[in-house]
Each structure stands twice: as C-alpha cells, then as structure tokens.
Amino acid sequence: xxxxxxxxxxxxxxxxxxxxxxxxxxxxxxxxxxxxxxxxxxxxxxxxxxxxxxxxxxxxxxxxxxxxxxxxxxxxxxxxxxxxxxxxxxxxxxxxxxxxxxxxxxxxxxxxxxxxxxxxxxxxxxxxxxxxxxxxxxxxxxxxxxxxxxxxxxxxxxxxxxxxxxxxxxxxxxxxxxxxxxxxxxxxxxxxxxxxxxxxxxxxxxxxxxxxxxxxxxxxxxxxxxxxxxxxxxxxxxxxxxxxxxxxxxxxxxxxxxxxxxxxxxxxxxxxxxxxxxxxxxxxxxxxxxxxxxxxxxxxxxxxxxxxxxxxxxxxxxxxxxxxxxxxxxxxxxxxxxxxxxxxxxxxxxxxxxxxxxxxxxxxxxxxxxxxxxxxxxxxxxxxxxxxxxxxxxxxxxxxxxxxxxxxxxxxxxxxxxxxxxxxxxxxxxxxxxxxxxxxxxxxxxxxxxxxxxxxxxxxxxxxxxxxxxxxxxxxxxxxxxxx
Length: 484
Fold this sequence. Notes:
Layout: H1 3-55, E1 75-79, E2 85-88, H2 100-108, E3 111-115, E4 124-130, E5 137-143, H3 145-193, H4 211-258, H5 265-297, E6 305-308, H6 309-319, H7 321-327, E7 330-335, E8 340-343, H8 345-362, E9 368-376, E10 379-385, H9 393-397, H10 423-433, E11 437-442, E12 448-457, E13 461-463, E14 469-471, E15 480-483
Parallel strand pairs: 7-9
Antiparallel strand pairs: 1-2, 1-5, 3-4, 4-5, 6-8, 7-15, 8-12, 9-10, 10-12, 11-12, 13-14
Helix pairs in contact: 1-3, 4-5, 6-8, 8-10
C-alpha cells in the first residue's frame, strides 16, 4: 500500500475518532445545558406557587391556578404530608404524582424526578420541594419535548456534518501528503535515472533544510562512495590487465621462439626458463588479486607468531638468487641477530617478494640490492635498497594510493611507472594489518629504499648444554651474509 494512502487513512481515522468524540461531548453538553435551564425554570415556578400559597392567591381546594397558568404543558400539584392531593392541574391528574418514598424524600429537600404518566405523550421533568407550611410538598413539572427536539436537531446536524467533515479531512490529507511526498518522489525518480555508468550524477538537494535535505545529502554521499568504488574497480581491472599483459606477452614470445626448428636445445631450454619465470610472475599477480579481493571483504587474515626476521629475509632472498644471477644483480643481506617480531610469515614473505621483485626490475646490471635487518629501539626494521632510478615524486607524496588510476601513472611507452602497480600497494596493506609501517624514499646517490617497520619483541632465551644462555631464533649468529 502506498505510503500516501496509508498516511491519508491514518489521518481520516484520527479525524473520525475526533469528530465522534467532539460530537458526543457537544451533544452531552447541550443536553446538560438545556436540562439546567429547565430546572431553573421549574425552581422559579415552585417559588411562585409557594408565594401564591402564602398570599392566599392560591386556594388548595380550587381546581385551577390562575397565578400559575398552564404553559408548555406544565403540571402542578400540592400534596399533604400524608400524600393527599390538595391542589392539582388538569394534566397532573387527581392522583399523587409521587410515591410515598419520593414524598418523604421531598419533605426534607428538593427532589428532581423524570416521570411518565399514561395521559402524557412524553415524560416530564418534575421538581418536588417542601412548601414550608407543615409537611406539604409542591410538585411542578414540564415537558421534555423541547430537549428532545433540540437533541434530535443536534444529532441530525452531527450525522450530516460529521461525515462531511471527515470527507473534507480526507481530501485535505490526500493533498497534503501528496505535496509533502512530492520531493521524495522527485528524489526517487532522479535516483532511478542514475545507472552504474552515470554515477557521477548527483541528486538536487532541496533548500528546505529539513529531513529531505538530509536524505538528499545522504544519498549523494552514498552515490559518491559507489562512484569511488566503481572507479576503483575499473582502475583495478585496468591495472590487473596491464600487470598480466606484459608477462603473458613475454611468455608467448619466448614460447614462439622456442618452437622454431632452428633453435638449439640450449636456446630452447633458456627460452623455456624465461617462460617459467613469466609463469611465476603471472602467479604472483594472481596472488595479489586474491589479496585485493580479501581486502575488499574486510581485513587480511593473519596468523602471527614469533619469527626471526633475518631468517625470513634470508629465505626470501634465496628464491630470487637465480633471477638475480641472470640479471647480473648482486643480492646482499646484512642481518643483526635476534631481531624478533610477531608476524604472519606467509604475508611478510609476500611483502618482501613484491619489494624484491620491484627492486630487481629496476636495478641495472652490475648493481646490487641490499637488504638489512636491524633493531631500532622498540622497532624491528627490514630495509631494501636498490640502485634503480627511484620512485617518481607523486609516488613519494602518496605512497599508498591504490594502484594506477590515472594516465599520469603510465610512461609514454604504455608501461606503468614504478610504484603504480599492485605490488607496493599490497606491501603497505600487509604492514597496516601487522600494525606496522612501510616507508618509501629515494637514496641521495640514486636508487630507492623501502623500510618495513614492525614492533620488536624480545627473543625467548634457551639453555645450552654447557649451562649458558643464548637467545634463540637467529639464522646466522655472525649477523652478516651475502647472496648473489
């Protein structure tokens, strides 16, 4: 059911209840006022009858009362203490209008009654009051036809006017709710016209400074977030496509060359090795895409444990030894002993994998990639330095901008600039999940440096056979080693 119709029905229901309550109150008030007026008239009439008795103008044996003429079908009786009728009008009849119990009650004070008589066409409102002479009682009454006629007119007016008023209320409520909901309908129509391809559009914000204004601003904020999410998705697909396109093209080229009949077995083997390296690169990109998908769902799932960072760095460097030899790049590791932190080894190795892959891609032949692991106060630091061209200035100003999202991230040749792909952004994300920090900087003499800062913990001590104590977890007690 439309909200406009629901609101109209609620207003009409409320109006009907209100009209019924007010009509009832009005009818009761009018009836009470009319009865009070009749009671005042009867009270004055009783005073006139008593005054006529006192002055002798009224004889108890006379059949009529000239001083109290019959008007409005009024009745008058004077009763003795024993209930005998001492005076009566024609409409009152010759029998006592009061029962013995009512007569006794009237002797002690005014008594109001509503009586019916077989000779009367309608009930009478009767006042029985003591005359002050002995125990006699004066009874005066008048017809209730006037009140009944008034109430019939009032009820007729309410029966006709009440529904008419409810109908007018329904029309007014329908128009009012329509006008109130018109801006909401306009917002709905504008929102319906906005598609996924046109999320840059925004709703017009009413200048009424009310709930509709707040609703429009909230919807615009939602559209802004959706637009950002869609742009990030498009940029993500573009960046992923670029990251996958280059190794796939190289793999295809290497395989095509390896399939030529004039190639020697050594050349075929070399081409296949390069193709395997390309497969590794594609696997790495796919792994990064999975990382991004997991991040969109919430947070990285970590399983932290105590690890010696020097051992992790040495293990990761060993996986790049063959590639470094082919590129003519020296891998150097300088690790202090006992640098321990609570980390998820797989995720930390993934971060180092991305950093080393990035460093080898931009480090020229004959240069080196230096990895150091050291303790810096309460921090454990892994630092990777290379001899490449360094990071562009826009990367250093926004080191964690999520993958390439503009043309400025691409070189004139169509390749991504350093730091604009997926890898280094994931490095920062992994460090945030570890409550750590990743710093990007350029070396004064050329090259780039990436520092991973983690919270250092003290290594657990273990007993040696000779009874001495030595902190455990160090891969190389000498603290220095080199691979190349």
